[in-house]
Amino acid sequence: MSGIVLFDGECNLCSSSVQFIIKRDVEGYFRFASLQGKNGGKLLKEYGVKEDMQSVVLIEEGKAYTQSLAALRICRHLKGYWKLLWFLRVIPSPIRNFFYRLVAKNRYKWFGKSESCMLPQPHLREKFLD
């Protein structure tokens, strides 16, 4: 069983987050696809997620999760203390998602935008679906 993380491949914050996840995903649970790629778009349609969703998307156990819940579900699979962030799900989702959307809305301004999607290093290519 594995999870698929769909991310904005042109967003510097998002690409850095993918690298962060890879370093802490010791069990190799996650695979990745950029939202701009053919597989990313195909998965969005398959799971009924809007293409203009400004969110990381986690596909896990046959469901698509977005915004703060996707981020928290990702954290629970990471090594170290990151698993403890799963506890934050007790905070009502409107509050969690308010802060998530604030960062998502400003991610290009605060962290920059790449002209093209991130290309994985050769030893990591099997983790990417695109």
Short description:
By secondary structure, the chain is α+β, with helices and mostly antiparallel strands.
Query: How many E-type strands?
Result: 4
Structural class determined from secondary elements: alpha+beta
For the terminal residues, how far apart are their CA atoms?
19 Å
Q: Note poorly predicted spans.
A: none
Strand numbers in spatial order across the main sheet: 2-1-3-4
Helix content: 25-40%
The dominant shape is globular
DSSP helix count?
4
How many domains in all?
1
Description:
It comes from Heyndrickxia acidicola. It holds the Pfam family DCC1-like. This is Thiol-disulfide oxidoreductase DCC family protein. The protein has 130 residues and is of the alpha+beta class. The chain has one domain. It is 38% helix and 14% strand. It contains 4 helices and 4 strands; from the N terminus they run βαβαββαα. The chain has helices spanning 12-24, 38-46, 67-75, 93-111; strands at residues 3-7, 30-34, 57-60, 63-66. The chain has a 4-stranded mixed β-sheet, with helices on both faces. The longest helix has 19 residues, at 93-111. The protein is globular. The model has no long low-confidence stretch (mean pLDDT 90).
